[in-house]
Amino acid sequence: MPALVQAGYYLLLREPGWFEHRVLKGTVPNVNMHVFSPRCEEVDRMLAFRDRLRSHDADREEYERVKRELAVRTWERVQDYADAKTRVVRRITLRALG
Fold this sequence. Notes:
By secondary structure, the chain is an alpha+beta fold.
């Protein structure tokens, strides 16, 4: 964490009960960085999801369509947006791990 803060990121969210998850925000470029504890099994699931999107056009297009539909809506909390895309993420992740 100290090296990321030194590099210009700031801590936006801390979820110690979920794999010690952290979200850091960068301003140049404007990014959200998700950080997990070492050897966290959630990282493997996320990488499988990413790799599935890279290698399967239909899944990538479905995910893009859902994200674009959700992006135009107004959300009270960022977590509400994340929750709204959970179904499509789960479907694609299941195919990736299948």
